């Protein structure tokens, strides 16, 4: 989905003069950090849209021709540095006219509100007035106000691009009540409480070897059997992972390093556990697909039916949008199940690791 940075002009991109009108070339002064900030947002995948109130533009007190020249120079200077606005929206009305197009009104932005491909919750509004913050609330976006005692450009860009990848998901049905919390950028002892001891141990492996903070609690109908608890836990966890990962910019995407090899040389992750060997290949592609190759030598390990192990991973893939190939060979069912969870966790750890801001896809979306 598209993320938009709705950016004010005067006081945000260029300093606002005492008469509030930038109607001459010598009035153009860049706000410190603005250019680098726009470049960083654009590089991170934000579309830039300018939204500006220009009181009385086109009237005798603010002729259109005195505005056009300085504004064209501003846009030319920005474009010369690779900064391009997808749209420039300017409302010339006066406050007393109460135009729906005037910020904080959303009249000029209705096409973004109607576009289901725009992620408004992941979008931002950047301005220098309280009306810009109110516009953000009206859009359902995050708002940043520039000024003394408020945000500066370097600070707001760090906050926008460095936000922790967290998610909380609650899934309540007639069969289970589940709460999952994940933080992909934090390390903490995993917490799992589902009423199934060995399954809890496996969920702990995902958090521990996946390198992220995980808490999953489930009150399920285990008096009937284990199926609903295991399946719904996987669905909720997958949903949380998908929400936390965000737009996937900068992630590794693939879990593709084998033990003792560099990621560049390996094609999958190979994890040994005594007599057991597991291969896991993972792509955080957004397209769910699961392939399992293996047979467990007994029907249960503790309170976990082994037939539900591939079902858990298939359900996880469905809601997380993962493509996972999992192959297991061995004689000890405990080792085989545990190695499956550890190998998947290690592959997941590599796929979600951030190393930049580029989107790891030629499609332009992932």
UniProtKB/TrEMBL annotation:
Keyword Cytoplasm carried by entry: yes
EC number(s) from the headed UniProt entry: 3.1.3.15, 4.2.1.19
InterPro entries to which the protein is assigned, alphabetical: HAD-like_sf, HAD-SF_hydro_IIIA, HAD_sf, His_synth_bifunc_HisB, HisB_N, Histidinol-phos, IGPD_sf, ImidazoleglycerolP_deHydtase
Pfam (any one): Hydrolase_like
Pathway(s) it belongs to: Amino-acid biosynthesis; L-histidine biosynthesis; L-histidine from 5-phospho-alpha-D-ribose 1-diphosphate: step 6/9; Amino-acid biosynthesis; L-histidine biosynthesis; L-histidine from 5-phospho-alpha-D-ribose 1-diphosphate: step 8/9
Requisite cofactors: Mg(2+)
GO MF entry, a single one: imidazoleglycerol-phosphate dehydratase activity
Keyword Heme: no
Keywords, alphabetical: Amino-acid biosynthesis, Cytoplasm, Histidine biosynthesis, Hydrolase, Lyase, Magnesium, Metal-binding, Multifunctional enzyme
Gene3D superfamilies in the cross-refs: HAD superfamily/HAD-like, Imidazole glycerol phosphate dehydratase, domain 1
Region Histidinol-phosphatase, annotated ranges: 1-164
Residue numbers binding Mg(2+): 8, 10, 128
Residues annotated as catalytic: 8 (nucleophile), 10 (proton donor)
Catalysed conversion reaction: L-histidinol phosphate + H2O = L-histidinol + phosphate; D-erythro-1-(imidazol-4-yl)glycerol 3-phosphate = 3-(imidazol-4-yl)-2-oxopropyl phosphate + H2O
Main location: cytoplasm
Location relative to the cell: Cytoplasm
Residue segments, region Imidazoleglycerol-phosphate dehydratase: 165-366
Entry similarity comment: In the C-terminal section; belongs to the imidazoleglycerol-phosphate dehydratase family. In the N-terminal section; belongs to the histidinol-phosphatase family.
Protein's UniProt name: Histidine biosynthesis bifunctional protein HisB
Organism of this sequence: Pseudomarimonas salicorniae
């Amino acid at each position: 989905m598209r993320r938009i940075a709705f950016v004010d002009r005067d006081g945000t991109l260029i300093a606002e003069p005492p008469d509030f009108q930038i109607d001459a070339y010598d009035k153009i002064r860049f706000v410190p950090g603005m250019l680098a900030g726009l470049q960083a947002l654009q590089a991170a995948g934000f579309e830039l849209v300018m939204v500006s109130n220009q009181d009385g533009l086109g009237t005798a007190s603010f002729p259109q021709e005195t505005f056009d020249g300085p504004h064209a120079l501003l846009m030319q200077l920005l474009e010369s540095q690779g900064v391009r606005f997808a749209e420039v929206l300017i409302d010339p009305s006066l406050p007393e006219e109460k135009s729906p197009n005037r910020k904080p009104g959303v009249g000029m932005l209705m096409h973004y509100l109607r576009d289901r491909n725009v992620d408004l919750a992941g979008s931002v509004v950047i301005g220098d007035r309280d009306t810009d913050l109110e516009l953000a609330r009206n859009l359902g976006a995050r708002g940043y106000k520039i000024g003394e005692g408020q945000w500066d450009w370097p600070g707001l860009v760090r906050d926008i691009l460095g936000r922790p990848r967290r998610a909380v998901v609650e899934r309540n049905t007639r069969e289970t009540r589940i709460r999952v919390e994940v933080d992909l950028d934090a390390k903490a002892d995993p917490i799992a409480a589902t009423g199934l001891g060995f399954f809890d141990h496996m969920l702990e492996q995902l958090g521990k070897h996946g390198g992220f903070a995980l808490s999953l609690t489930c009150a399920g109908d285990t008096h009937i059997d284990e199926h609903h608890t295991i399946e719904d836990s996987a669905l909720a966890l997958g949903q949380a992972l998908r929400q936390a990962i965000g737009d996937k910019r900068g992630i590794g995407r693939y879990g593709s390093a084998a033990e003792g090899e560099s990621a560049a040389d390996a094609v999958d992750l190979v994890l040994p556990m005594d007599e057991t060997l597991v291969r896991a290949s993972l792509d955080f592609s957004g397209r769910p697909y699961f392939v399992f190759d293996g047979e467990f030598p007994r029907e249960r390990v503790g309170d976990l039916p082994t037939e539900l192990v591939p079902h858990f991973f298939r359900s996880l893939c469905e809601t997380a949008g993962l493509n996972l190939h999992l192959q297991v060979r061995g004689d000890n069912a405990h080792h085989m199940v545990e190695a499956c969870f550890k190998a998947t966790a290690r592959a997941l750890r590599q796929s979600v690791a951030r190393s930049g801001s580029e989107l790891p896809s030629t499609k332009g979306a992932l």
